[in-house]
Amino acid sequence: MTFKKIIPAFVIAYFSIFSIISQEIQHTVIAKSGDGIFSLLRNEGIEVAKYYEEFIELNEANIKNGSHLIVGKEYKIPFAPDSFKNTGVRIQFPNNQDEAIFKYELASLKRIDSTMRNTVYYFITDASNENIEEIDIVEKMARKLIQRKAKVYLLNYSGKDDSNLLDLTTIINKKYLMHSGHYQRVLVFKNNGDVKNAQTNITLYHNANSKDGRKMVDNLLLTLGENKIKQKSLNDYAGVFNDFKRVSFAKNLLPTLTFVEIGEKGKSEVKSVKISSNKKNIADMITGGILRDYSKLEFEDK
């Protein structure tokens, strides 16, 4: 399933050149004691079966007996856009550099299936809260999605300075154009207090004018155990989009936006669902809603 948009020819040319340049950048790793081809590729988050032969071809001169590595030698790593390192990406501010979300645990990630291969998600958290629970939940969600071949970007902004949101708009829209033709969604997470009680509220917002936004909230609520939706416009988002910069951020984003509040229910008359506050449970439930939303669109498209 693809979602086509008309993009100027120069934009397509730009990203085509960018793609070629990216592939020419050769990443290398120095073999340590105990390293083999399998472990080296797994540690890079790469599917061994898919890239094994290419690794052999790139490093033939430094491989003994057909498969043994030499300790201390530098080995070229195949360019793998579908590796866990390249599909789970954290965008750091203020330099906007990309880095792997799970760079220290790539070898532990296993491919579940490829059902989400045409999807891109942008998860935004408020870094000013320094809330470990929220970050942990979002990372658990990212793990589940990239294991199904989705592309996930994690972004932080400072809730104390909403001008950061405008910077995010530019970054996300550039990525959106780069992934043109894919199903893409933005989820902004806000924590309304520590997730410490036995149960917590999940409150969902969407743009009243967005059909896809309403569908996303609908499917999230169905998964969370509720089938009623209260529709609200951006200007009515109490405590969420309550100033010009936040409203501007929402209205200028190219991908569909959903806002997820976790914790104490706000004062606004918005639909909230109370679920177990276990972090794994929250991550599982929200991820389940995301999977439902995409699978339904895929079914309708067919």
Write down how many β-strands occur, each being a DSSP E stretch of 2 or more residues. 12
Low-confidence stretches: 1-24, 227-231, 233-239
Strand order of the largest sheet: 6-5-8-7-9-11-10-12
Shape descriptor reads elongated
CATH fold topology of the largest domain: Aminopeptidase
Discrete helix count = 9
In CATH, what is the class of the largest domain?
Alpha Beta
Strand content: 15-25%
Tell me the number of structural domains: 2
CATH superfamily of the largest domain, by name, is Zn-dependent exopeptidases
Helix content: 25-40%
Find the structural class using helix and strand composition. Answer: alpha/beta
Q: Estimate the mean pLDDT confidence.
A: 81
